[in-house]
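name: query_chain
kind: protein
chains: 1
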Amino acid sequence: MSPPLSGHVLIVDLAKIPAHGLRLETEIGPAELALPEDEQLSITAPVHVQGRLTKVMEQVYFHGSIGGTVVTPCSRCLEVVNDEFDVEVRRVFLPLGSNRIPSDADEGGVTDDLDVYSHDGLRINLYSLVRDQVVMAFPVQTLCREDCAGLCQACGANLNEQPCTCQIESGDPRFAVLKHLKSSEST
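structure:
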């Protein structure tokens, strides 16, 4: 069993991270994350955080995953979509004021996927890491399905549910005058 975490589940005492590492598995409620308010995007269920904290001298490494569900409207038809995300995370926490890159980078280790955060020397706070990963998981464009037909531009009907009988003229309405010129010349 893992040693108890201090205070909040995302705040860990460095002294309680054993030499073999500390396994972390918890769920964080949407209200605790204090995400930016957006009427289009929301997280209604807890975000699942799991991974391992490993301490090497003053450096603390977190390797794990953060997952949950973002509720957002389809970009074409506006139907509500539950978009699941599960992100693998590798981060290093260095003491405040330290700008030292982990020594693995000098030895050809993989550092492209490794972002750096800081800790105060006593505790490590995973809150900003989790929050950053959740915000980055927000989709830019969500579709309810790949072949979503969207909404009718004239009447607003959902074209996935029913065909629309609206007559939509193709072309740019600003060029309608040119269409009349062409027909008057041919007569």
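note: DSSP finds three helices and seven strands in the chain.
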